Amino acid sequence: MSVAAEFAKANEGYVKSFGEKASLALPPARKVAIITCMDARIDPAASLGLKEGDAHVIRNAGGRAQEALRSVIISQQLLGTREIVLFHHTDCGMLTFNDDGLRTKLKESVKADVRNAVTPAVDQLSFLPFSNLEQSIKEDVAYLKASPLLLEETKTKITGWVYDVYSGKVTQVA
Ligand SMILES: [Zn+2]
After folding, report:
1. Domains and CATH numbers, the chain
2. What is the Å distance from ligand 1's center to 13 Cα?
3. Which residues are Zn(2+)-binding (predicted)?
4. Predicted TM-score (pTM) of this structure
């Protein structure tokens, strides 16, 4: 059975107990956007006390602000969020590679007949890896605070945190 088929099976039980969630509003009730890594060990709802309807949770590799910006703008402009909480985490995969190495691996993985054609585009890609956890959080918070595209009234409510995958504890660093 594929994982997708397992999902469909599991969903049958979820639908039966869906209940009052059918009446949740579209805008997040707690007016907050969370940016965090896609890491499979992180459960933002459980670790931060979130319920359905509370928050936007924007996830990508590393929890990088630059990639999340599009979603944060939509969150602020169209759905009323007024605070941003950013998390990077210990043992993140983003600490394990650099752009040049991944570009080479990517080029080697594409079909030989298109390799030359995709090379210029691959060479311009940045995968936003980092080598220092606290520094990457501080950089991303600074990036958000400096962005002219984010609402000025929210700039004092942008914070950056470490999530420790070994204890589940969050610690503010920016
Ligand atoms: Zn990660």
Report:
1. 27-172 (3.40.1050.10)
2. 30
3. 37, 39, 89, 92
4. 0.96
